[in-house]
Design a protein that fits this description.
CATH topology of the largest domain: Methane Monooxygenase Hydroxylase, Chain G, domain 1
CATH class of the largest domain: Mainly Alpha
Number of domains: 2
Number of strands: 0
Helix content: over 70%
Distance between the termini: 47 Å
Order of helices and strands: HHHHHHHH
Number of helices: 8
Shape: elongated
Largest sheet: none
CATH architecture of the largest domain: Up-down Bundle
C-alpha cells in the first residue's frame, strides 16, 4: 500500500511538471510568431511586449526546475523517472534560451526601428520557417514520446534540417559582409540582420537538443542516435 501511494504521489508530481512544460511550449511558439510578425511588419510595440514578457518564460523555466528538484527530493524515483525529471529541467532551460534568442531579435528590431530594410528578405524567412518547424516537431516529440523506432525516425527528420539552416546562415553572413565591405552605410543594419540569422541558427540547435533529449528519455543512452546518421 505504501508503494502504491508513493507511486501515485510521484505520478502526480510528474504530471504537474508535464503540464507546466506543455504551457511553456505553447508560450514559446506564441512568442516565436510574435517576434517575426513584429520584425517583418516593423511593429515596435509588439517587439517591446515580447521583451517585457520574457521574464515570464524565465519564471516558468525556473518553476519547472524547482518542481523537478522537489520531486526528486521528496519521492524515490526509478531510473526511468529520473531521466524524465532531469530532462524536464534540461528542456525547460533550452526553451528559456530560445526565449532569450527571440527577445534578442525583438531588441534588434527596436534598434533598426522604422528605417527601411537594406535587403529583400529571402533567406531569413526560409531560416525562420525551418527553425519553426524544427522547434514544433521537437516539442511534439518530447511531449508525446512514441516508441523507440518512431522516436528515432522523428528525431532524424529534425536533425536532417540542420545542415540547410546552417548553409542559409552562412549565405546571409557572406552576402551581407560583401555588401557592407562595398558600402559602409550598410554596416550597422547589416550586422543586426546577421545577428537575426545567427539567433535562428541557435534556435535550430536548441530544437536538435530537445529531440536528442527525447531519445535519451526512451533509451537512457545519450549516444543512442547519431544526429546526422542516415536512416537505414
Amino acid at each position: 500500500m505504501a508503494n502504491y501511494h508513493g507511486r501515485k504521489s510521484l505520478d502526480l508530481g510528474l504530471l504537474e511538471i508535464e503540464t507546466k512544460i506543455n504551457a511553456l511550449d505553447l508560450k514559446i511558439l506564441e512568442v516565436f510568431e510574435d517576434t517575426f510578425s513584429s520584425f517583418y511588419e516593423k511593429d515596435l510595440e509588439k517587439s517591446k511586449k515580447v521583451i517585457k514578457n520574457d521574464y515570464l518564460i524565465n519564471k516558468s523555466s525556473l518553476e519547472i526546475e524547482n518542481n523537478s528538484i522537489e520531486v526528486i527530493r521528496r519521492e524515490t524515483p526509478l531510473a526511468s523517472d529520473m531521466r524524465k525529471l532531469t530532462s524536464y529541467m534540461f528542456v525547460s532551460q533550452e526553451l528559456e534560451r530560445i526565449g532569450d534568442y527571440l527577445s534578442g531579435i525583438c531588441k534588434i528590431n527596436l534598434k533598426i526601428g522604422k528605417k527601411p530594410f537594406i535587403t529583400k528578405f529571402e533567406k531569413i524567412p526560409k531560416m525562420e520557417a525551418i527553425a519553426k518547424n524544427m522547434l514544433k516537431d521537437s516539442i511534439k516529440l518530447f511531449s508525446n514520446v512514441p516508441e523507440e523506432k518512431k522516436a528515432i525516425k522523428a528525431a532524424r527528420k529534425i536533425f536532417s534540417q540542420d545542415d540547410e539552416i546552417d548553409y542559409l546562415n552562412y549565405q546571409v553572413q557572406n552576402d551581407l559582409i560583401k555588401r557592407m565591405s562595398r558600402d559602409s552605410k550598410l554596416v550597422e543594419q547589416g550586422t543586426y540582420i546577421i545577428w537575426v540569422a545567427h539567433n535562428l541558427e541557435r534556435i535550430s540547435d536548441r530544437a536538435n537538443n530537445i529531440a536528442e533529449r527525447t531519445i535519451y528519455v526512451i533509451t537512457g543512452d545519450s549516444g543512442a542516435i547519431v544526429p546526422y546518421e542516415l536512416e537505414e
